[in-house]
Amino acid sequence: MFSEERREEILKRVEKEGRILAKELAEQYNVSIDSIRRDLSIMEEQGLLKRTHGGAIPIPHARQLPLSPDKRYGEGNVYQNAIAKLAASFIKENETLFIGGAAIQYVLLKYLPRDISFTVVTNSVEVAYYLRSMENVQTYLVGGLVKESGNITDALANEFARQFTIDRCFATAGGLSAKGLSTATPEVAVFHKTVFDNSKSIITLIEHTKFGVDLFAGMYPITKLDMIITDEEVIEEKLDKVRAQGVTVVVAKVGE
After folding, report:
1. Rounded Cα distance, 253 and 232, in Å
2. What are the E-state strand segments in the chain?
3. How confident is the model at residue 42 (pLDDT cuts 50, 70, 90)?
4. What are phi and psi of 172, to 5 degrees?
5. What is the pTM of this model?
6. pLDDT of residue 226
7. What contacts 212, CB < 8 A, 6 or more positions away?
8. For helices 3-17 and 22-29, what crossing angle results, to 10°?
9. Sheet containing 55-58: which strands, arranged edge to edge?
10. Residues whose CB is less than 8 angstroms from the CB of residue 217 and which lie 6 or more positions away in sequence, other chains included
């Protein structure tokens, strides 16, 4: 098989599976792992995929359709769970938290402490519904137009959010680069900027697939983030660029 043919098959596989490992590809095509790494490097330069530690993932798109509720509000993948579990360990008694309606924020809910009291402000109907049965949590739902996703981010929600002071904001975004957080929708960016501005501490939960990505609408500068929690698949070079901005980055290990 010619290298061009192999790359075509690799591209089909990464688009289908979402993540591929160089070691497995080397075994499948009976070539050295260095040959596979060269393939992945060439394909990354062509904008076909993004390399990760040990493999590759698809290129994130700037404007993706939102996930359906059954996919957004699920158990989450291993990386989301590792990040969310570590993030929950920073919660302290009597704090006021902000938890939005992204997939990783929903995963965070199952790791929330049950033995201390705290308050949660959310703009997600799904998050509020989940929290209704937790007796140790006082929940405030931001008002406004409810989108199909169950999230509320319109102008009314933005004004509503100005009334709160948040002790610890658990943020996320569609992309994170040395510039900061970004998303595909300006309305979402404006709403979250209001929340972030009113937060004493911002902990950002961001998977490796979103590192080094700049989407259409900027949300918040990286220098104003207090901590970023990511997973162990993030490329070290991208970590270095973020750390160079003076932000604390913590890497969550899967299984810990």
Report:
1. 6
2. 20-21, 49-52, 55-58, 96-99, 118-122, 137-141, 166-171, 175-177, 180-183, 199-205, 217-221, 227-231, 248-252
3. confident
4. -155, 180
5. 0.75
6. 97
7. 50, 175, 176, 177, 235, 238, 241
8. 130
9. 20-21, 55-58, 49-52
10. 182, 183, 184, 185, 186, 188, 189
pLDDT band with cut points at 50, 70 and 90 for residue 69: low
CA distance 169 to 49: 32
Q: Dihedral sign for Cα 20, 14, 228, 199, please.
A: negative
Question: Residue 166 phi/psi, 5° resolution?
Answer: -100, 130
* Residue 105: its H or E element: helix 103-108
Q: Which domains does the chain have, with CATH numbers?
A: 3-58 (1.10.10.10), 69-252 (3.40.50.1360)
Interatomic CA distance for residues 13 and 56, integer angstroms: 10
Q: Which two tokens stand for residue 106?
A: 């929903």
d(C-alpha 80, C-alpha 38), whole Å: 29
Task: Return all residues near 41 (Cβ < 8 A) that are at least 6 apart.
Answer: 51
At residue 168's C-alpha, the angle toward residues 165 and 174, to 5°, is 105
d(CA 232, CA 208): 8
**Which of the four pLDDT bands, split at 50, 70 and 90, describes residue 62?**
very low
d(CA 80, CA 100) in angstroms, rounded, equals: 15
Amino acid letter, residue 242: V
Residue 195 tokens, joined: 């929340």
Q: How long, in residues, is the chain?
A: 256
